[in-house]
């Protein structure tokens, strides 16, 4: 069976027949990430300007009830045990947050904010587990996906809801070319900013082909990722928005469907160069196996 014919199926934990493309690509043994690629989330300790929604619009409560903001704590020999990194993510169930593995790969603890479009008004929840994809490679940024399990289930309301993932009703489109998508995050709002935005920002972007994306990122634009370009090359995410959701709206129900996770971009310009996302439909089985497995325990 082909991936294209099966990626729209509703998966179950017992579905052993679904075929996925390889989650590993053979890179040269001496491969190094190009110097003009930025992959780091916004780090409080070093004051680096590494991410933002460029030239976006301000979002308000109830607009993106699935959006989260979180603080990841991990030990670092340079900054000490309290090094913190700030990332975004999305609610996919009462217990689980979907995000990028490069935000959580070294974290031992995460505090997740939900329920508001303003980080100062959010309610924060502690993590119970952090599950990074076992094949995540920080050198090539492949399989940049992770799940955060919360200590206590969320109580859904108008400001806290799960985003829809692909299933039998919301079938996948392998390219999404020329379709308007929305990316959101709490990153810096322009190149001159020195602090994160407390208010959620969003902007529309358009997917481009992986062949076109390879002109900017060469071998990194594998089938595991999806690339977008901002409107008129004036808008887009950067790595302070790492882990945040890329959604496309279902034309019939007007429901946001998450198709990507903000992964990396170019230091040459966040709006002028494509943004790269983890392509979610490839990992649907992994996501559901993790969720069902932990629930059984």
TrEMBL record:
Q: Which residues form the Peptidase S1 domain?
A: 53-292
Disulfide bond among the record's keywords?
yes
Q: Name one GO molecular function term.
A: serine-type endopeptidase activity
Keywords of this protein's UniProt record, alphabetized?
Disulfide bond, Hydrolase, Protease, Serine protease
* PROSITE patterns in UniProt: TRYPSIN_DOM (PS50240), TRYPSIN_HIS (PS00134), TRYPSIN_SER (PS00135)
Q: Which InterPro entries match?
A: CLIP_Serine_Protease, Peptidase_S1_PA, Peptidase_S1_PA_chymotrypsin, Peptidase_S1A, Trypsin_dom, TRYPSIN_HIS, TRYPSIN_SER
Q: Name one GO biological process term.
A: proteolysis
- Domain of life, per the record? Eukaryota
Q: Which family does it belong to?
A: Belongs to the peptidase S1 family. CLIP subfamily.
PANTHER family per UniProt? IP09309P-RELATED, PTHR24260
Name by which UniProt lists this protein: CSON008767 protein
Please report the organism this UniProt entry assigns to the protein.
Culicoides sonorensis (Biting midge)
